[in-house]
Design brief:
Blueprint lengths: L6 E6 L1 H14 L5 E3 L8 E3 L4 E4 L11 E2 L7 E2 L6 E8 L4 H20 L6 E6 L16 H9 L7 E4 L7 H38 L8 H17 L3 H22 L6 H4 L19 H13 L5 H18 L3 H21 L9 H41 L5 H22 L4 H21 L10 H12 L47 H8 L3 H21 L3 H18 L2 H17 L3 H17 L3 H12 L6 H17 L5 E6 L4 E10 L8 E11 L5 E12 L14 E3 L3 E3 L43 H13 L8 E4 L14 E5 L4 E5 L1 E4 L2 H4 L14 E3 L5 E9 L2 E11 L3 E12 L2 E4 L8 E4 L5 E5 L3 E2 L4 E8 L10 E6 L3 E5 L10 E5 L8 E10 L10 E8 L6 E9 L2 E10 L2 E10 L5 E10 L9 E3 L7 E3 L4 E8 L10 E10 L6 E9 L6 E9 L12 E9 L16 E7 L5 E4 L3 E5 L9 E10 L3 E4 L2 E8 L14 E3 L6 E3 L5 E4 L34
Parallel strand pairs: 1-4, 1-7, 7-8, 8-9, 10-24, 27-34, 43-52
Antiparallel strand pairs: 2-3, 5-6, 10-15, 11-12, 12-22, 13-21, 13-23, 14-20, 16-19, 17-18, 23-24, 23-25, 26-28, 28-32, 29-31, 29-33, 30-32, 33-34, 35-36, 36-40, 37-39, 37-41, 38-40, 41-42, 43-44, 44-48, 45-47, 45-50, 46-48, 49-53, 50-51
Length: about 1300
């Protein structure tokens, strides 16, 4: 039907048309034209390739694909053979000739067109090449104007003029393109009008579907005409919609017939039970001959249900293939098969042979799968070819203009799109079910034909194969017409809706050369057992592999179970075990108990058949523990397990298996003192478990592995103490059995490689020191692998790029520079060296059915022997002795039943305990120790895990300045070293030894503590341990020197520093200087005075020093002593030393502030006078080189806060005092100062310094600079220190009270007569 083209008739001057038709056929289909349709339908762009036929006037009776009713317009029933446009061609250029002959011919032609079902027409006037104007005058009107005026006054677009196409000029090309565009537009407009009328008629026919006499087959052909037209116009998606609507309508009729009366036309579909024709989608199977014949049977209402369904699906498949929607074709296929089978059941269609539906389904599945595969390969090949041709064309036309380049680029991009789309097509999601469906039907056919392994071929089976094969042809006269038996004979197609045989050829694909058709595959598969087995196993592998590819592992396991059953019938139990184990793992993970037990029963049968005792015992244990089967069956497999274990008593092999559901550990409790008493520490473990076995069982050994628990990551060995067991037989003495399953020692992995831990490999590790794994990390990894065998450990090695080569290339981190961004970068890579293991599909490896068991180190265990474990809950007490200190954890439980060892999963770090061996410890206990007083401390000895025997001596010595005494000692003298005999003591007991300590007293000016050491020598090790004792001074002492003129007073302050109350008495100050013993010291405090000092309280003592008899050039040393006493202790003496030098008064300073003359008060902002008087004490004496006489030059400095005073003028200066002149012993200085704030302000401070002028005679650079020397404490007496002056506010800010008492010179404490005691200058 791809040969169908839109029909356009031509009439008029035939030679003129024949001269233009080559250009028409070449150019009309070049450009796509926009097809705008009614009812809001989507606009399409279609390419038109019409076929021109001579105009044939329709008969007056209304025949020719239309129905005429009275005076109404004929109703179209066929669209493919109806011309959609009528054209009239003429080259008349003379108006007179036109009026004489051409006009009448056109009028006659138009009358004939109006009687046609489709009345669209177009008149084309062709200008001949020899058209020369003979008259110089312009004619009033041309022939084209006459035609438009006579026939198309309101539709001028139906008359076009085209220049001679033979000319090569722009005018000819433009006129030709205009004509082509007009033809396209009119043709599509004709189709739009015609299809609207056709659809209205079609809907009217569909509305009559419930009337008597309505026939679905006739309506099917009517709507299929619309589908053919849409397909012809390359609107494949809407053509497919027509078939989908017919499919849905037919299905609805079938479903309704199940509940209502069956229509008469539907009864014909229930016949032909002797044929089950195969679905044909390829031309190799005779599809181009069969499908037109099926359409003829539809026209005659004699089609069978399967033939009708095959035809309908074939048409849908062709349209999907044209749209390259192969994925949707695969998606529709399974539903098509199920719908057909369901409709056969509803219509009660019975077939003459059993298995006929299986044959039809099998062949249909293979036909669909082959079509999808071949079409996908064809699309890929065509896309690659187009892409290659486009690239070659671009290279050849590299020098074309820019517009042409853009066109080629667009073509190239468009060429890539189909390839990209085709490469992404994945039909496995939908084809997997088709492969599985075909497998199931082939198995059913093999069972019917006696082709299964345990069946015996008979003659009835051979007849069954022949009958089933012969029923696949759609017609009786079609089966033997093809040499291959596929049915490709000739049929009578003369009445197929007036379509020619060429038009009915379907675009069915061809199979690749040498490939068998599905019917041939079926015949080949049913020819013998060997070929059936080959085809069945091939289908199983395809179905299972496809299911795995799309991730539907459960469906793959279902196929695997069928395959396992087939291998069991063949007697190949080894291959059955592989598929059964895969299914078992999946069902167990999904907790499908019934399916799991069913698989276990088959596994037990296989293991027993291959005499695999170890796996048979493990499988029997699993079955015996299952509650999904009856008690007698559980007891049977329990007896089988015990019988096999009895046979292994004389063997040295052990069978290991996980506890899984055999013994379920419910709780674990560990009790331990945590301390090693003597040689070991007792550990008791209470183990609670539930036994799922149907009967009591005696365990010869139940043990719990105890391993060291490391909390800090460190370098550990990989599985140096554990063994990765996968059902192997471990012999006594550490040797391995099991033949090929045990890994050889020389095949162990390298130390720095972490092996893959998949389910089929045995694991034994060499020691490795590169990774830092803790015991928790090991348990986590092993627990994951126990739960899921597919968990792999990936070996990742960090490599740094360097310049190595070959297999030993070492890569190092390289530092490079990004030239563009001028930035440095550091690169590295991480390489996985076991990609083939870690990145493979998790079920791609062949599973051998072994059980994974990870056994940890059982060198140290808590165990018990000969325990009877009853069904249900059991409590078992395990005991152990730990002699090595450390942190331990319970790692794994092992339950031994004869030679059968059941291992629990790793317990991780949930159950921990510690065993400590504590060494003896010596410490000291003391409160707040005060220096200078006898106080008690306690030496505490904690024995730890050691026993202290009688006669051990503890040696204690102290640091310098600390005396010790044992309280129980008979001696009253304290010393710096003592020996103490210790009493016998048990482990983890504390012994206390009291001592009396006394630290020497030192003078302290602050609260700084000082520390002493006790050095204790341990008798059990000989090591010395230092213990610290901290002492605080009882007092904090200080002194002050006060002056009143030339009189001097010294004051001593004591501040309490102890928490204890101390009583001080008998204070005394004595002179220590050898030349000043006769200097009088007059105490101002009575000697008999006693005071109590606590922490924070102070006491002051004062003495007057006789200055007149003192020569102060030498140091004057004094000793202060006082007795202090704590409660019920002897009195102690506290001493404090004072040193004075150059403290006699040399100068006296006096200052005052007065208002200027004419001003009564000192006010803020007013200038005031400040008078400074400096006088000197004593007369000039002979300088003996040791005494300090007053200097002649002094420098004064006046300092004041800028917020209180503003100093005007010079604030410093130099004055001279001369002993030769009495008037020069007093100097006065006047300054102007301005008060800045009102109130009682302190006087500005005057500071005096010795001024040493520069020595001009000396050559030293140091003497050339004048210097200032400060006076010592007490050498300058400031009589005005502490004086204040009253400053009044400014006049405008004063209140109404103007009478103020006191002048400007008044001061607190009687002004200048105030005597101030100055201790600091």
């Amino acid at each position: 039907m791809t040969d169908n083209k839109p029909l356009i008739t031509y009439s008029g001057e035939i030679p003129v048309f024949q001269g233009v038709v080559p250009s028409l056929q070449k150019g009309i289909g070049v450009e796509a034209v926009e097809w705008k349709r009614a009812y809001g339908r989507t606009t399409k762009h279609v390419h038109l390739h019409p076929r021109f036929v001579p105009f044939d006037p329709p008969p007056s009776t209304g025949e020719g694909g239309s129905i005429t009713s009275g005076g109404e317009s004929p109703v179209l029933t066929s669209l493919l053979d109806q011309p959609m446009l009528h054209t009239f061609w003429t080259d008349c250029s003379d108006v007179e000739v036109y009026r004489a002959t051409t006009k009448d011919v056109i009028q006659s032609w138009l009358n004939s067109v109006k009687s046609c079902p489709v009345k669209e027409w177009l008149i084309i006037l062709v200008e001949p090449s020899d058209n020369k104007k003979t008259n110089k005058l312009l004619p009033r009107s041309s022939v084209l104007d006459k035609i438009k005026n006579d026939f198309a006054q309101k539709q001028t677009e139906r008359c076009v003029c085209v220049a001679d196409p033979a000319k090569i000029d722009s005018k000819s090309a433009e006129s030709l393109n205009s004509m082509l565009h007009r033809i396209r537009q009119l043709l599509l407009a004709s189709y739009s009008k015609t299809l609207i009328k056709f659809e209205e008629n079609m809907r009217a026919q569909r509305e009559k579907r419930n009337e008597a006499g309505w026939n679905f087959c006739h309506y099917f052909l009517l709507q299929e005409e619309l589908a053919f037209v849409l397909e012809m116009l390359q609107v494949y998606d809407e053509s497919l919609v027509q078939y989908d609507e017919l499919d849905a309508l037919f299905t609805q009729f079938v479903l309704n017939s199940h509940f209502t009366d069956t229509p008469k036309w539907l009864l014909s579909f229930q016949r032909f039970g002797d044929r089950w024709p195969a679905l044909i989608l390829s031309s190799n199977s005779g599809g181009n001959k069969i499908i037109p014949q099926i359409r003829e049977t539809i026209r005659n209402s004699s089609v069978s249900l399967l033939n009708f369904r095959n035809y309908l699906f074939a048409r849908q498949a062709i349209l999907l293939v044209k749209q390259r929607r192969l994925n949707e074709l695969a998606q529709r296929s399974l539903a098509f098969l199920h719908i057909c089978i369901n409709e056969l059941n509803i219509l009660d269609v019975t077939f003459s042979e059993e298995g006929s539906i299986s044959c039809w389904v099998f062949v249909s599945c293979l036909e669909i799968l082959g079509t999808i595969s071949n079409q996908n390969l064809a699309i890929l090949s065509a896309t690659n070819a187009n892409s290659s041709m486009t690239n070659n064309k671009l290279e050849e036309d590299s020098e074309v203009n820019s517009s042409q380049v853009e066109i080629n680029d667009g073509t190239k991009r468009k060429g890539k799109t189909p390839q990209h789309h085709a490469n992404q097509l994945d039909f496995s999601v939908h084809t997997a079910s088709l492969w599985d469906y075909a497998r199931e039907k082939l198995y059913e056919l093999g069972k019917l034909c006696g082709l299964l392994p345990k069946s015996q071929l008979k003659s009835d089976h051979l007849h069954k194969v022949i009958s089933l094969s012969s029923g696949l042809s759609p017609f009786e006269d079609f089966s033997n017409s093809n040499g291959n038996g596929n049915g490709s004979g000739e049929i009578n197609n003369s009445n197929c809706n007036n379509h020619s045989g060429d038009e009915m050829q379907l675009p069915l694909p061809e199979l690749p050369p040498g490939e068998e058709t599905p019917i041939e595959k079926l015949k080949n598969a049913l020819s013998s057992k060997e070929k059936f087995q080959h085809h069945y196993l091939e289908l199983c592998e395809l179905a299972m592999g496809t299911y795995k590819h799309i991730g539907r592992l459960r469906s793959a396991r279902k196929v695997g179970l069928s395959l396992a059953s087939y291998y069991m019938e063949l007697g190949d139990y080894g291959k059955s075990i592989v598929f059964l184990t895969e299914a078992f793992n999946t069902f167990k993970e999904d907790r499908w108990t019934i399916l799991t037990i069913d698989v276990l029963l088959k596994l037990a049968q296989c293991y027993e058949a291959v005499n695999d005792t170890d796996r048979y015992i493990r499988t029997c244990a699993q079955i015996a523990c299952s509650k999904a089967i009856s008690e007698p069956e559980r007891g049977h497999f329990f007896d089988e397990m015990m019988t096999c274990l009895t046979k292994l008593e004389n063997n040295d092999r052990f069978i290991m298996s996980p506890t899984e559901e055999t013994f379920l550990i419910t709780s674990v409790k560990v009790e331990s003192s945590g301390k090693i008493h003597g040689p070991s520490c007792d550990v008791v473990v209470d183990l609670s478990l539930v036994s799922n076995l149907p009967r009591p069982i005696v365990s010869n050994l139940v043990q719990m592995a105890i391993v060291v628990c490391d909390h800090v990551p460190k370098q550990v060995n990989y599985f140096t103490t554990g063994t990765f067991v996968q059902g192997e037989n471990i012999s006594k003495g550490g040797k391995s059995g099991g033949g090929k399953q045990q890994r050889r020692k020389d095949s162990l992995p390298e130390p720095d490689v972490v092996e893959n831990l998949s389910g089929k490999q045995a694991l034994a590790r060499k020691e490795s020191t590169t990774p830092a794994y803790t015991c928790e990390d090991e348990d986590v990894a092993l627990a994951l692998m126990e739960m899921n065998p597919a968990v792999n450990m990936v070996d990742l090695r960090q490599q740094f790029e360097s310049g190595g080569s070959g297999t030993n290339k070492v890569t190092m981190v390289g530092v490079g520079t990004d030239v563009k961004n001028n930035e440095k970068y550091i690169s590295g890579k991480l390489t996985c060296h076991n990609l083939h293991q870690s990145l493979r599909r998790k079920d791609s490896s062949q599973v051998q059915g072994e059980t994974q068991v990870f056994k940890t180190d059982f060198s140290q265990v808590a165990n018990t022997r000969d325990i009877t474990i009853h069904p249900g809950a059991n409590n078992i007490t395990l005991s152990a002795k730990v002699s090595i200190p450390g942190n331990y954890r319970l790692a794994q439980v092992s339950i031994g039943v004869k030679h059968f060892e059941l291992l629990s999963p790793r317990l991780g770090c949930r159950y921990k305990f510690s065993a400590t061996r504590e060494p003896p410890n010596i410490s000291v206990q003391a409160g707040n120790l005060v220096a200078g007083i006898d106080q008690e401390v306690v030496i505490r000895v904690d024995t730890g895990s050691r026993v202290i025997d009688e006669g051990m001596v503890l040696l204690v010595r102290s640091s310098l300045g600390l005396k010790l005494k044992h309280i129980s000692s008979s001696s009253s003298d304290a010393s710096s070293e003592i020996a103490i005999s210790m009493p016998p003591t048990d482990p983890f007991v504390s012994a206390s030894i009291p001592l009396t300590v006394k630290a020497d007293l030192a003078t302290q000016k602050d609260s700084t503590v000082f520390e002493h050491k006790l050095i204790v020598k341990c008798p059990w090790t000989g090591d010395e341990k230092k213990l610290s004792l901290t002492f605080i001074p009882p007092f904090i002492s200080s002194y002050k020197l006060h002056s009143v003129g030339q009189r001097k007073f010294v004051q001593v302050l004591l501040l309490g520093n102890s928490d204890n109350s101390l009583k001080v008495s008998e204070h005394q100050l004595t002179v220590q200087s050898p030349n000043s013993q006769d200097i009088p010291l007059v105490a101002l405090n009575p000697r008999s005075q006693s005071l109590i000092l606590d922490i924070g309280k102070s006491a002051a003592y004062m003495w007057e020093i006789g200055v007149l008899e003192l020569e102060d050039q030498l140091p004057f040393r004094l000793e202060f002593s006082v007795k202090f006493k704590a409660d019920r202790r002897e009195a102690e003496i506290y001493k404090y030393y004072i040193c004075l030098q150059k403290f006699k008064t040399l100068y006296e300073l006096k200052s005052k502030v007065e208002p200027h003359k004419g001003t009564e008060f000192c006010r803020v902002g007013n200038m005031c006078s400040m008078l400074i008087e400096i006088s000197k004490f004593g007369k000039k004496q002979v300088d003996d080189g040791n005494s300090q006489q007053p200097q002649n030059s002094l420098m004064y400095e006046v300092r004041a806060s800028q917020h209180m005073w503003a100093i005007c003028g010079r604030s410093s200066g130099i004055v001279s005092l001369d002993d030769e002149n009495d008037d020069a012993t007093l100097q006065q200085v006047n300054l102007d100062v301005m008060p800045m704030t009102p109130g009682y302000l302190p006087l500005p401070t005057v500071h005096l310094s010795n001024y040493i002028p520069a020595d001009q005679k000396s050559g030293s650079s140091v003497s050339n600079v004048p210097k200032l020397e400060p006076f010592n404490i007490g050498q300058v007496y400031n009589r005005s220190k502490g004086s204040q002056v009253h400053i009044l506010p400014p006049p405008q800010a004063m209140g109404s009270n103007t009478g103020l008492s006191g002048g400007c010179g008044s001061s607190i404490g009687a002004g200048s007569s105030l005597t101030a005691i100055d201790s600091h200058f």
